[in-house]
Amino acid sequence: MTPPLYIALRFLMHRKRALLLSLSGVVCGVGFFICMQAQTQGFAKYFIDSTLGSNGALVVRSRFEPRQLDSIVPTKTSNTNVAHRQYFEGITNANEIMRVSRKFSNVVSCSPVLRGTLSARSGFENATVELYGIDPALHLQTTDLAHQIAGGSLYDFRNKPDSVIVGSRLAQTLNLEVGDTVQLLAPGGQYRRFTVAAMAKSGVGTIDSTRVYGHLRVAQTLLHKPYPASLIIYKLRDPDRAPALAQHFENLFQHDAASWQEREANTLHLFLTLRLSAAITVSLVILLAGFGIFNVLTMTVLSKMKEIAILRSMGYRRRDISAIFLWQGGMIAAVGSLIGCIAGALLSWGVSKIPIHLRGLLSTDYFVVAWDWRHYVWAILLAMISVFIASYVPARRAAQLPPVATLRGSSV
Amino acid sequence: MKLGAFLSCQDIERYLGEDESRVHALRGVSLEVEPGSVHAVVGPSGCGKSTLLYILGLLDHPDGGSVMLEAEAVSHLPDDELARRRNEFIGFIFQFHFLMEDFTAQENVMIPMRRLGRLPETAMRDRAAGLLEAVGLSDKLQRASRHLSGGEQQRVAIARALANDPRVVLADEPTGNLDTKNSHRAFELLKNIVQQNQMALLLVTHNPAIAEACDWIHEMMDGRIIASHARRSG
To answer: How far is CA A185 from the centre of its chain?
Structure first.
């Protein structure tokens, strides 16, 4: 143990009240930071996982053709020809696109979906629904539908072409139970009956309140679509690389492709804003803790002027004196961060047990928290920086104290 | 300058304060301290005794002249180097004891040793215990310094000044805060240890009895040493 560290420890231990005050500031700052980040990222991650599990990491949609338009009035700053796209609804060569795209290492699986908006009726209840015509085998490989089943049987759905899976909130709206019959209104005007084989709960409000899964061929008949798929959804090994792959697929297949980041940009921005806002708010707690430590150390320097002078007379260098006070800050930051991390983890765990009946953008019965080591690293880093700045000024002041002035002043 | 002086200064000039309050505290002071010798600096308050002591102890810089430690000019050395020499060669004792309040008697004595870093922990403890035993505090090693009496605190300060076996001990009115009995006891103790170990002692004092017991008496007046006497024999 270096002499400054030894002396710093003794100084700290003999000012227990100040030590506890400083420690509690850091513990609260670090703990709150971790808990807030765990919550905000928890909800964001829950949303991302749910949307990836339902809609895939990447979606290929309508075909497009580049269209060259002649500008009526050419301008000096633009080219005379402006490139546009002309979109054609649906995917006619879905099998070929899927065959090629499966060769990409990032693609785990893909599934064609025929999508259409219909009216559903059950008893006296009506609702507008979004029918997802799927190939059950491929869709279960590509999405988390199997894990989203909240009642009923996937087996029944697979084996009965005239059965559907209904979103959990939609089922509530239509007063549907597993085994009930729901009527879907075809564009031609006639109702067709389907048996509810299962209910799905993705956790995303917009999906659970509108979606109905049916068999692809049945959907094609019901929707009267001339193409076999409106979109192909993809499960990727690395969803973070979805934007690059989407761009590549657009160029390769000449079909509109959207990554989940692009698709959910608005919601993701909302979560990011919430996270930043929470981080800034809680960082203020850490800064306040730093301010508290600044005060405590400044008071310590003032009360230890005689000790500083005597240490200097005994041969302690300026940097030793400075180190004594930096060590004090460092130890408060280290112990405070450690306890703060434990407190943050316990708080996060406690928060995750709080019941909450959320039925909006997300559907959840408990607070959702994310367990991410980076929250802890950030919290510790913030605490360290804050405490270092708070300790540096008093430490520097202590090192600059002229010992003779103190000694002379005391000898009068 | 005589050969063999541990510590000496030549033509020291020192100004204190600024502008109108600027005072010429030391005016061409020269002094030599040899091994085994005990020096007293006497004079009225404000004559520059303590200022001279701090300059000799490398705690303060002279505005003119030079300080020599073992025949080497040291006043111009960087602060870290001066700190190292203070730690290794010089022991300080102050009037108001200046013990570290949060430490025991033994830990106070170990503080200079920790900075020097030559001894392991157990050896430092043993040496501190030995020094405290030499000043009659063997039964108060673990006593917090704030719980020691004034005389005991000063004896701890003496033990601490000797911790790194310095060449010279500088004492600023070491007995000024003690009663006559304790004052005499502390001085005799210090003097004996210094002479037995061939160290040198330079002390600032207002106590004529203590000054008379020193080998040399340097009388100061208005920033000058106006007279230096060797102790009268007999």
So the answer is: 38
The Cα of B83 is separated from the nearest Cα of chain A by a number of Å equal to 4
Fold topology of B7-230: Rossmann fold (3.40.50)
Nearest residue to A164 via CA among A128, A193, A125, A138: A193
Burial of A116 (0-12, 13-18, 19+ CB in 10 A): buried
Is residue A412 very low, low, confident or very high in pLDDT (cuts 50, 70, 90)? very low
For residue A3, give the nearest of B228, B40, B119 by alpha carbon.
Answer: B119
Please give the helix or strand (H or E) that residue B229 lies within, else none: strand B224-230
Q: Is B196 left (phi over 0), alpha (psi -120 to 50) or beta?
A: alpha
Checking if the pLDDT of A76 tops 60, the result is: no
Using the predicted structure, report yes or no on whether residue A273 has a pLDDT greater than 50: yes
B50, B98, B117 member nearest A310 (Cβ): B98
Q: Which H or E element spans position A244?
A: helix A242-253
User: Which residues does B21 contact at the CB level (< 8 Å), separation at least 6?
Assistant: none
Residues in chain A within 8 Å Cβ distance of B92: 310, 313-314
Beta-carbon neighbour count of residue A385 at 10 Å? 14
Kind of pairing between the strands at A163-167 and A58-70 = unpaired
- What sections of A304-372 are H helices per DSSP? 305-313, 318-352
Chain B nearest-CA distance from A12, in A, is 10
What ranges do the domains of chain A cover? 3-52+267-411, 90-229
- A316 closest CB neighbour out of B83, B90, B96: B83
Boundaries of every domain in chain B: 7-230
B128 pLDDT above the threshold of 60: yes
Residues of B with CB under 8 A from a CB of A: 50-51, 54, 57, 59-60, 79-80, 83-88, 90, 92, 94-96, 98-103, 107, 111-112, 114-117, 160, 164, 172-173
To probe the interface with B, which of A2, A406, A407 has the most B CB atoms within 10 Å? A407
Q: Please name the residue of chain B whose CA is at the shortest distance from the CA of residue A312.
A: B83
Residue A129's closest CA among A222, A63, A217, A227? Answer: A222
**Mean pLDDT of all residues belonging to chain A:** 86
Structure tokens at A327: 């060590």
pLDDT (mean) for A235-249: 92
Segment (H or E) for A49: helix A16-55
Report helix angle B150-161 to B121-134, nearest 10.
130
Q: Do A315 and B111 touch (CB under 8 A)?
A: no
Of B60, B80, B111, the CB nearest to A314: B111
